[in-house]
Amino acid sequence: MKTTKNVIKGLFLALVIVFQSCTINEESIGDITINQGGGTGGSDCIQLSGEITSDITLTSSNCYELVGGVSVLDGVTITIEAGTRIIAGQTTDGIYSYLLINQGAKIMAEGTATQPIIITSNKSTPNPGDWGGLIIAGKAPINRGATATAEVANITYGGTVADDNSGIVRYMRLEYTGGRINADSEYNGVSLYGVGNGTTISNIAILNGDDDGIEFYGGTVDLKYAVSTGAQDDSFDWTDGWVGRGQFWVAQQTTLEGDKGIEADNLSSTPDAVPFSFPTLSNITLLGAEDGDGENKGIEFRAGTKVAAYNMIIKGFPGTGIEVDDDQTLINLNNGEVVVKNSIIDNVNSFDLDHGGATVDFADFATYANYTLDGSGAPFNNTGTAIPSDFTLVGFRGTYEANAIDPSTINSWFTSVNYVGAVNAANDWTIGWVRF
User: Does residue 100 carry a pLDDT above 70?
Assistant: First the structure.
């Protein structure tokens, strides 16, 4: 993206007596009823702008407004209490608000299920793209060079510190993100640039963003318990050599607009760049919708990415469940470095693996234990296996046990579970802090 210009310098705080009130509206988009957030503006909030040059704590007893780009500098920590509410929007000079954690800075944002941290639009009737999003830049390895400059905010990211620590983000909900700088550049809900695995990110939800929900630009950071709902581009995205782990992700598209549940790249300009993007994922639920073009896909693996993915549910995408594109990605697939196992792929077109000549077939149950559609369009059939008729999915809630693999046997970071999909209806980790 082009560099955002004219960011106001300095930090100022304006104390007020009256706190923000908000107008709650409800609307239905596709299959989802959305209880809209938003605010009435920032005149009654503490305003933050420019560069934060010393440690600061945002408390739940106040409301706050981001005015333009707010940048936490190297060596500085921003602490956000559980239950804190922050509003953001577009300033009068056309600069979108965002919260940036630079290399060497930290964010300590620990909400709870009953007191999540909420960053939302400052408009009483909010829309996707009302503000930028959360941006974190770390010093972990990338494959775009030793370091690189991000497409937003002109920040540096990348390095050699795999365990770099940018802080903690837990139980945070970000709404109406993805402000568009121009036709080719826009913010995501959460952008993770070269973030290291010393950083803790879990229980994070992106609602109604105008671009991607969560995007990884290289790095080693892990992500557990994540929701991306109503993303108007991709729900989850990675590139630049991301090698982290992910578990318990939910993507739910709406009929308004959307693209892929997951868009996965190594590096588009150099597909064999090292380190390869090579995450390990488990317990993912991706739910598609028809937005009018018939092309929405569950996952597209492309530009040389590698992956190991288990226990997924991919359902309702009008295009393809899983597509593998580009020569280097096909090489990785044929070498056993693009793997999808123990998953339910319930789409009219389950797999498109033949770009350039795949020698594997994810529908081979004996090898991959994936259930797919049969030739009649009836779900979940494979030669020599029983149809899992006990599989149910209500909204995004629902799992299946028969062909699951315990992901903790693959890597000890993963929580041990015995089901396919992200949310076990008997243990719903979204209750209380996620809105749909």
Answer: yes
Name the DSSP letter for residue 409. G
206: how many CB neighbours lie within 10 A of its CB?
Answer: 29
pLDDT exceeds 70 at position 26: no
Rounded to whole angstroms, the Cα distance separating 349 from 373 reads: 8
For tokens 């930290």, the residue is: 106
Q: Which of 121-130, 139-148, 292-301, 395-404 has the lowest mean pLDDT?
A: 395-404
The mean pLDDT value of the chain amounts to: 86
Nearest-angstrom CA–CA distance, 245 and 39: 35
CB-count exposure of residue 377 (10 Å: 0-12, 13-18, 19+)? exposed
Alpha helix (H) residue ranges in 358-406 = 365-368
Q: 361 by DSSP, 3-state: which?
A: coil
Q: What angle do CA 129, 143, 76 make, to 5 degrees?
A: 60
76-98 per-position pLDDT tens digit: 999 999 999 999 998 877 789 99
The predicted-structure confidence for 327-377, as pLDDT tens digits, reads as follows 999 999 999 999 999 999 988 888 999 776 899 999 888 899 888 876 666
Element (H or E) spanning 30, and its range? none
> H/E element holding 250?
strand 245-252
* Interatomic CA distance for residues 201 and 109, integer angstroms: 10
Neighbours of 33 (CB within 10 A): 11
Question: Which residue has tokens 């598609």?
Answer: 288
b or e along 108-138 (b: 16 or more beta carbons within 10 Å of the residue's beta carbon)? bbbbeeebbbbbbbbbeebebbbbbbbbbbb
Q: Are strands 156-157 and 214-217 parallel, antiparallel or unpaired?
A: unpaired
Considering only CA atoms, give the Rg of the chain. Answer: 21
Chain position carrying tokens 């992956």:
307
